[in-house]
Design a protein that fits this description.
This protein is α+β, with helices and mostly antiparallel strands. It has one domain. 20% of the residues lie in helices and 21% in strands. It contains 2 helices and 3 strands, in the order βαβαβ.
Length: 82
C-alpha cells in the first residue's frame, strides 16, 4: 500500500501488524460538534500492544498546544480491545 502523506495514522513500517488494542473517541451528548459530525460519530485508533495503546491514551488526554486558552476539549476516550 502506498502512503502519500507522512501524517497518516499508520506508519508504513508497521502497516501490516495485527492491532488488537484500541482507543475509541466519542463526543458527549451535549457537545456542539455532534451537530456537524452526527450523533453516532466515533473514531477508533488501533495499536499492536497494550503498552503502545496506553502510551497513546496518555498523550491523547494531554491538552495540546493548539487549543486556545478559552477552548475546553470534550472528547471521551475509552480503552478497548478486540
Amino acid at each position: 500500500m502506498e502512503f502519500c502523506h507522512q501524517h497518516n495514522l499508520v506508519e508504513p513500517e508497521t502497516a501490516g501488524r495485527k492491532r488488537n488494542f484500541g482507543i475509541r473517541v466519542t463526543l458527549p451528548a451535549a457537545d456542539m460538534m455532534r451537530k456537524f459530525l452526527g450523533d453516532d460519530w466515533e473514531r477508533l485508533h488501533w495499536y499492536a500492544t497494550e503498552e503502545e495503546r496506553d502510551a497513546a491514551f496518555e498523550q491523547m488526554q494531554t491538552r495540546h498546544g493548539y487549543y486556545r486558552n478559552t477552548d475546553t476539549p470534550t472528547q471521551i476516550l475509552e480503552k478497548t480491545s478486540r
